[in-house]
Design goal:
Blueprint lengths: L5 H11 L7 H22 L11 H8 L8 H22 L1
């Protein structure tokens, strides 16, 4: 996956809010996996993945689609979930 910036995290949190609360963690994991796969695709073929974008988390999240939201309790929880999943993913890859 490409380098993760704050815009990536915000877009992923908005996308996660489109899922029911019980499915949000799985969606967060799926977005991260698919963003990484898209990045591998870009490196191999030199163009963006047709469904998952250019390998950035933002491209993957925006393709999933979600309306923009202001900061409320659900959005902050979604941000925390994305950050938690990113930390877990980076901890696994470092080990």
């Amino acid at each position: 996956m490409r380098r993760v910036l704050i815009g990536d995290v915000m877009a992923a949190a908005r996308a996660i809010l489109s899922a029911p609360p019980g499915a949000r963690a799985a969606l967060a994991d799926r977005l991260l996996i698919e963003a990484h796969a898209a990045h591998c695709y870009v490196k191999r073929y030199g163009r963006a993945h047709p469904q998952w974008g250019d390998g950035s988390l933002m491209a993957r999240a925006l393709h999933h689609g979600a309306p923009p939201r202001g900061p409320d309790r659900a959005f902050l929880a979604a941000l925390a979930l994305v950050l938690d999943r990113l930390c877990r993913r980076f901890a696994q890859s470092a080990a």
